[in-house]
Amino acid sequence: MIKREDVFKIGRLGKAHGVKGEVSFHFDDDIFDRVETEYLVLEIDGILVPFFMDDYRFRNGYLAFVKFRDVDTQERASELTGCDVYFPRDLAMDEDETPILSMLVGFSLVDAATGKHIGTIEGINDQTANVLFELSGGQLIPASDELIMNIDTQREEIVMDIPEGLLEI
Fold first, then answer.
1. Would the pTM count as exceeding 0.70?
2. How confident is the model over 118-153, as pLDDT tens digits?
3. Most buried by CB count within 10 Å: which residue of 18, 43, 45, 165?
């Protein structure tokens, strides 16, 4: 059984596309294209279920069409509409064991100097050259490698050297 802590959300399925079982996939992270995997995890009625991919093709930077194995009709693809799509955390580590940014959503952020819990990462803002962690409460913290002291994937915690005054902004 797949546990929620073993995956992270990368998008949501949209409508069926065509009559052969393709479904539109609105994604926040194209990790499924960058990291070798045969399957994605779909949430169906609260249960995380692996679905093996036969093929996928990109429409643009946030939309792809996916053909899942054994989903061969428009009707069957329509049953998947609205399912959240997840990616396995253990596959998401890059070669040097650094987690991919989008898998850090849900991690706690801790100030290295004080040991104080700053907040929980609710999103990653990569709309500008400076990537930001979006914390609960709306606070933005730079996701800079120079500031990150440690990432503990087991405890889902990031320890950062937060510059003085940054939290008051």
1. no
2. 999 998 887 777 888 999 888 888 888 889 999 887
3. 43
